[in-house]
Amino acid sequence: MRAILTSKWTKVVVFLLCLMPLASLGWRALHNDLSANPIEFITHATGDWTLRFLLITLAITPFRKILRLPDLIRFRRMLGLFAFFYACLHFTTYIWLDKFFDLAEMWKDVAKRRYITVGFTAFLLLIPLAVTSTAGWIRRIGGRRWQQLHRAIYFSALCGVIHYYWLVKSAVIRPLAYAAILAVLLLWRLAVKYWPQPQPATADLQPKPQRVQA
Amino acid sequence: MLIRKAPDLTYADVTPKSLYLDRRKFLRGMGIAGAAALAGARLWDLASPNTQAFAATKFDGLIKSPFSTKEQQNSYNDVTHYNNFYEFGTEKSDPSKNAGKFQTSPWTVSVEGEVNKPRKFSLDEIIKLGPLEERIYRHRCVEAWSIVVPWIGFSFSALANAVEPTPKAKYVAFESYWDSKQMPWGRYAGIDFPYVEGLRLDEAMNPLALLCVGMYGESLPNQDGAPIRLVLPWKYGFKSAKSLVKIRFVKGEPPTTWNRMASNEYGFYANVNPKVDHPRWSQAKERRLGEFFKRETLMFNGYGDQVASMYNGMDLRKNY
Q1: Considering the domain boundaries, does residue A17 fall inside one?
Q2: For B170-208, what is the HEC assignment?
Q3: For B188, which of A39, A113, A171 is closest by C-beta distance?
Q4: Does the complex come out with an ipTM higher than 0.90?
Q5: Closest chain A CA to residue B284
Q6: Which residues are CB-neighbours of B184 under 8 A, at least 6 positions away?
Q7: Chain A: nearest CA to B167, how far in angstroms?
Q8: Residue A42 lies in a domain
Q9: Which of B146, B157, B272, B291 has the most Cβ atoms closer than 10 angstroms to its Cβ?
Q10: pLDDT digits (tens, 9 = 90+) for B148-192
């Protein structure tokens, strides 16, 4: 497993997989298969994938710990950047194909419509994270503060899910599914942080379980 | 790719259904032949049986209605593959996928309440009530998209006159078919079924209010509200209840589904009004399916001449 995770080819494969949603949109566009309302279709697809990539990114740490696969960390930055990539496509679709670069209209929307306010916030929160995603920036700000900064992804994902919930007319099942997954991912973090670490009752007889560093 | 030209075609030129069905099969085939990875997310689609309804009755000798618009009609494919019918799922593509096996024959509509001659009608009996007309209407969804559809039917007033509403009848309540076995997707729609709608009696008697049994020259496809529905072109689409089973003339304002669900967002009247926004989005503009740029939304969806007088003296901000 470790060999697979650390192979550079795996990274290439994951990278290509992450491009599949975009490729699928391109394929559908070529075949005139973007529904009767292509702009809405693209807006929804890119929004869905932004949320999915945010959740996948947030799932890396729990999976590393639970499955004891620390090498999964090698994919976290890429997945996070893909979340940002699809967020950019989502925002571009909105500002271009919905608002036709009418910035005044956009600000009116952001101020007046709470689902846009919260969605726009989710997007803004991702920008500093994308900018500081390089090794150079981790050095410059220092690992600890970098980590603190990058906790903004929790709020971005939260805003993203609320954005989706506030936008649907009545079919709340899907936004609630995203919310449930996000809740699990965030509560796991809280639990790890605040749950008392289990003490082995028969410490003398058993080897002490290795504590995984957070 | 996104810019789809609005071709100079009449609906006689619309791709015959058998042809575009073949095209879809071809595309599905292409999907299988194409990269499996690409198809990954769509495997489910590919595996699903083609549940397209093939049975359709052609209507001949339709009267051309003076109410028809000369605007470019949307394609049959657009109107049948992009619409809301929450009983069959909440995605725009769901009704076309899920309504294929919907049983619409035999069909009866019960007309009752404050009328002298309450009775149950079979679909055939209703169709015989009036000469069928083709009416090409603009149709504006509350979600800010719009289409132009050649509907078939006649004014609802023909049915009303057949049952003779009493002076006590002030409103009309409409109820759509609901069967959780045939429509299991509806359980996750987030709204209560059966779907109910309502009109003031004068609105229902307005000649524009269409009792609709077909479109594009033939009977209604299941996903568009077969076998009989309302079409109210000056109101948001959700007022035009589909697959009607009960029509009740009543004294007081009847409850309506979306109003019950969120009364601050969906009023009883729901007249198309560019000046009164939905709380969550603007109603000033709309996207006509097939067009790249949005167009301005018209008051009463452009049917003010026929309907505006019914709302004289009413505050349309309050009665949205």
Answers
A1: yes
A2: CEEEEEECCCCCCCHHHHHCCCCCCCEEEEEHHHHHCCC
A3: A171
A4: no
A5: A105
A6: none
A7: 37
A8: yes
A9: B272
A10: 999 999 999 999 999 999 999 999 999 999 999 999 999 999 999
